[in-house]
Q: What sequence folds into this?
């Protein structure tokens, strides 16, 4: 019988906990267990107890109490870079050893990911990321953000919508290291109990999509995880309805 793993993504509020799971061999199950990280974001946070269903092991899901958002100033859409200065194939090629940098440091070094980095900062997630031992970024390029309607992007940048922006950015971060080889067509990312993002791979097995976003550069390894570059932004329902 095939095993089903659940890997924990990063979450700052209970309403936006994401879970990556899919069929895996016993070896992959062992690897997924090793990737499980215990992350503490505040004194009110807790870990849900582990459990097992009839199909296989379920890893602990991170459950986080809602925390107060520190007010920040609104930034303008015009302050964001919405073009890719570097060809996708050349991203990170100017770095001799990417594994000498953390995932966040590596993202900062790519001019194509400057908007992604800026929105992580705007969402107030930096301190949370620093507490993770391992992580994976699904990082949309600047031009991926340019595909969003300008009015929706402007709303996301409003101080009043910071929680929604945070939920959107969390959809692009997993608190474990997940290689592209683990992203198969039998994998899903759970956004809520009722909604999932499908992961699909084409017949050649070389092109993988997460929801509406295609991985266009994969497995850029850092000291504490890796980056997969996306051509579109993953959109939780709260953002779609904004």
A:
């Amino acid at each position: 019988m095939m095993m089903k793993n659940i890997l924990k993504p990063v979450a700052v509020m209970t309403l936006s906990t994401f879970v990556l799971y899919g069929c895996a061999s016993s070896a992959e199950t062992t690897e997924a267990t090793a990737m499980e990280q215990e992350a503490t974001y505040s004194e009110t946070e807790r870990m849900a107890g582990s459990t097992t269903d009839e199909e296989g092991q379920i890893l602990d899901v991170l459950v986080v109490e809602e925390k107060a958002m520190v007010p920040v100033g609104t930034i303008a859409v015009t302050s964001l870079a919405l073009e890719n200065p570097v060809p996708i194939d050349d991203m990170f090629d100017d770095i001799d050893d990417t594994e000498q940098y953390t995932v966040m440091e590596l993202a900062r070094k790519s001019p194509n990911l400057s908007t992604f980095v800026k929105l992580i900062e705007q969402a107030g997630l930096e301190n949370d990321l620093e507490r993770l031992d391992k992580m994976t970024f699904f990082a949309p390029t600047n031009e991926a953000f340019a595909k969003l309607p300008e009015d929706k992007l402007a709303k996301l940048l409003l101080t009043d919508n910071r929680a929604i922006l945070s939920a959107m950015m969390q959809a692009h971060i997993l608190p474990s290291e997940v290689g592209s080889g683990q992203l198969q067509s039998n994998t899903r990312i759970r956004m809520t109990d009722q909604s999932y993002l499908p992961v699909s791979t084409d017949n050649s097995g070389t092109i993988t999509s997460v929801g509406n976003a295609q991985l266009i550069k994969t497995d850029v390894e850092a000291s504490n995880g890796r980056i997969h570059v996306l051509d579109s932004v993953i959109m939780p329902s709260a953002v779609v309805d904004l």
